[in-house]
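Let's practice the habit of predicting before peeking. Look at the sequence and jot down your guess about where helices and strands might fall. Then scroll down.
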Amino acid sequence: MLALATACSAGADGAVGATTGGAGASAQPRSGGTLRLAVEKEPECLDPHQSPTESARALSRPILDSLVHQDARGSIRPWLATGWKVSPDRLTYTFELRRGVTFTDGERFDAQAVADNLDHVVAPKTKSLLAGSLLAAYRSARAVGPSTVEVRLKRPDSGLLGALALPNLGIQSPRTLKGSPSALCAKIVGTGPFRSDTGFVPQKGIDYVRNTSYNSAPEGRRGQARLDRIEVKVVPDNAARLGALTSGQVDAVTALSPTSLSTVRSLPGFTLHSTPYPGINYSYWPNTANGPLSDVNVRRALRAGIDWGQIVKNVYFGVYQGAQGVLSASTPGYDGSLAPAYAHDPAGAARLLDQAGWTGRDAAGYRTKDGRRLTLRHMWSDGSVANLATQIQSAAKQLGIELVEENLDGGTFVKRLLDGDYELIDTSFSAPGPDVLRVLFGADNIPTPERGISNNMARYDNPEVEAGFRRALDAEDQAGQHRAYAEVQKRVTEDAAVLPVYSPLSTVTVRDGVREIGFNADGTPDLYGAWLAS
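Done guessing? Here is the structure:
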């Protein structure tokens, strides 16, 4: 899994989330203290210019500011850029920048620093797995004054400002960009509310110290962070994270399992903060290019024949909500009118399999065609999906489809992914807007040995969808962009190019005394405004 419901509301400083349990907040926030946080995953690389993972975004955000800020409602606001102009042909963006901002290594933030960062993202040696694709339309950047930078594009890109709001395009000290990619994987330097002097230590974590010179908060948000320090440790085991919280070893934990969330809700002295992740639901991705699932009728049958929503209820106790669309319902641009296409219809599924020619049955009850059993290999490398996978496997058997569960080591998993040697794979992908559709369904993002790891795991290549992406990029406003992406969602749904399972939930569970935990626009925890009442 690359990423990882409750009501969503505007929170402090524009963060979003819902809160359950715990004592009420005290009247006056205060500064000082150390927050001890346990997280479930560590990034293979801290540098979000290189890494596509949610953990890299989450752990780099306290250090890195961005040119623009996306608020809880999806609006783009000034941050390091105080304003911008777009040329009539939409190929040139001119940004005016804050003055008097410095990186925590003492280097000055200016127009050349922005140009250096954008060039670094697209440089071949960076080997960017996500940030580079966010700048696919990028041509060049140049400083036209100390606080004015001009960004030129090869083609219009309506998603540019949203991409610039992500940590993946966060602004790092140009001095550090001159070092090796491996050095940046351990330590990054920004202008943000915190700095990390030691960087990320594998199998341990990362410590942050408040940046007492911070003067570049996004528009509408306060100045310096309130916490003196944040100590983050990586604790992959769910039970160990829960135990660390309840025993007082840490003040907060992320990503507890649904079972643990149900448990902690009933315990006095703890508060659960949560928000649905925007972006792509946790889904099964069918290999649309090869094998039995290259037949759209087989994909549609698998979607209709399994009661995905009931399985989610069985496995996750109502903590997660079943998904009924390509995008999660919390994503700007989500088209809820397509939900009926995801209804449970076992009789319709049987007809679709008949139409696909899988009309025979073998001694075990599985469907066959030309003497061959309808077998689909589901490969995964995350043990947390085992229970869910078992129930989906059982439901598929009722359709006459054999799901072979393949729990692979990381190296084998990656090789099989690049070779397209699978029928099903699973993941979610959090993102604050519908542009994520290009990342997950764009033909240029199909993983291959030559291209490397990329995110179109359905290996989906549809000219009509590619045309929809171009219309979205050419859109002059958000309404036009959303119309284009609605057509993409419709086409992807018709093609059953993804099998949505549930909407992931971003959670932070804290002891009483921890206040104002929020969430960023991409669903990752926001600790900028957090403070300790006790």
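How did you do? Confidence is low (pLDDT under 50) at residues 1-16.
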